[in-house]
Automatic annotation (TrEMBL):
It comes from Arthrobacter mobilis. It holds the Pfam family HTH_5. NCBIfam families: HTH_metalloreg. Residues 1-96 form the HTH arsR-type domain. Gene3D superfamilies: Winged helix-like DNA-binding domain superfamily/Winged helix DNA-binding domain. One of its GO terms (molecular function) is cadmium ion sensor activity. GO terms for biological process: response to cadmium ion; response to lead ion. This is Winged helix-turn-helix transcriptional regulator. CDD domains: HTH_ARSR.
């Protein structure tokens, strides 16, 4: 089995956060585990769209599905992800929009 490098782990996390809907799902799950229907209503997306995003986040190893009878509840795969998201929010808010000086067309900020 291949060992993940630091850069591949960060790339996986960055891919998950690169979509605003996936970022909102992670932020919602940081607050508390939730059922897909609750998440779809909270975020304002269709259940099909939410299902696709949850599949991506599961594939990235960031969320897990916990079976509860005929339903599944979703939660962050590791509580440290919630702390990492909080830390990342704090850093990004401290730097502010002026901190990103990407060139036009680079896809940065």
């Amino acid at each position: 089995m291949e060992t993940l490098t630091h850069s591949s782990v960060l790339s996986r996390f960055g891919h998950a956060l690169s979509d605003p809907t996936r970022a909102r799902i992670l932020l919602a799950l940081r607050e508390a585990p939730a059922y897909p229907s609750e998440l779809a209503d909270l975020i304002g997306v269709s259940r099909q769209s939410l299902s696709n995003h949850l599949a991506c986040l599961r594939g990235c190893g960031l969320v897990v599905s916990v079976p509860e009878g005929r339903r599944s509840r979703y939660e962050l795969a590791d509580p440290r992800l919630g702390h990492a998201l909080a830390d990342l929010l704090g850093v990004v808010l401290a730097v502010g929009p002026a901190g990103c000086r990407g060139s036009a067309g680079t896809g940065c900020c």
